[in-house]
Design brief:
8 helices, 230 residues, globular, mainly alpha
Length: 230
């Protein structure tokens, strides 16, 4: 249960910190943080939680990460569904807090609420095919970074920093394409609160693509560098 509570809190922080920076600060007049700031915010949520709860739950914060680690032989499949439920619920809680904050400003429009999208709902108008490729490849690389940084032979104590910087880079690449998901819990939480007619209908891509990328990464890294037994 402690692991699930940790995953709930960690995913809440990822959504509140990352999506919160996008909704509240990215476009702030004159002093807005822009894409760079949002990318860094997502990376910082992972870095901070890696050192806060990594020793408790592993700090997955993402159903795709849990699936990729399971496929890669790093995570027990019996814990997979409870972790995913805790992550989705934590993401929704983070989005609910953000919604409550945003609703406190008179005249503020909720709009897309940092939801992920493709086609006309992509930040820069990228197609569904572009979004699918981007989310698969970005999640694949994210899991390769995670699996490598947390390998038994990797330098100790540096995993959180490597993973956080990896997520920052992923956002710098893919925000213009999909607003960056690589995390079904993050996408679900924002779609539920977005005041649009497209966020939920497009949500399927931001579950399917990250899961495909994670599975491919788990298989690939297990082949490249299996954990030694004994």
């Amino acid at each position: 249960m402690k692991k699930l509570v940790a995953e709930f809190i960690g995913t809440l922080w990822l959504v509140l910190g990352g999506c919160g920076s996008a909704v509240l600060a990215a476009g702030y007049p004159e002093l807005g943080i822009g894409f760079m700031g949002v990318a860094l915010a997502f990376g910082l949520t992972v870095v901070t939680m890696a050192y806060a709860i990594g020793h408790i739950s592993g700090c997955h914060l993402n159903p795709a990460v849990s699936i990729g680690l399971c496929i890669g032989g790093r995570f027990d499949k019996k814990d997979l569904l409870p972790y995913i439920i805790a992550q989705v619920m934590g993401g929704i809680a983070g989005a609910a807090i953000l919604y409550a904050i945003v609703s406190g400003k008179e005249g503020f429009s909720i709009g897309s609420f940092a939801a992920n999208g493709y086609g006309e709902h992509s930040p820069d108008g990228y197609s569904m095919a572009s979004a699918l490729i981007t989310e698969i490849v970005m999640t694949f690389m994210f899991l390769i970074i995670i699996l490598g940084a947390t390998h038994s032979k990797a330098p100790k104590g540096m995993a959180g920093l490597a993973i956080g910087l990896g997520l920052t880079l992923i956002h710098l690449i893919s925000i213009p394409v999909t607003n960056t998901s690589v995390n079904p819990a993050r996408s679900t939480s924002q779609a539920l609160f977005a005041q649009t007619d497209w966020a939920i209908p497009q949500l399927w891509l931001f579950w399917i693509a990250p899961i495909i990328g994670a599975i491919l990464a788990g298989i690939t890294y297990k082949y490249l560098s299996p954990e030694e037994k004994g």
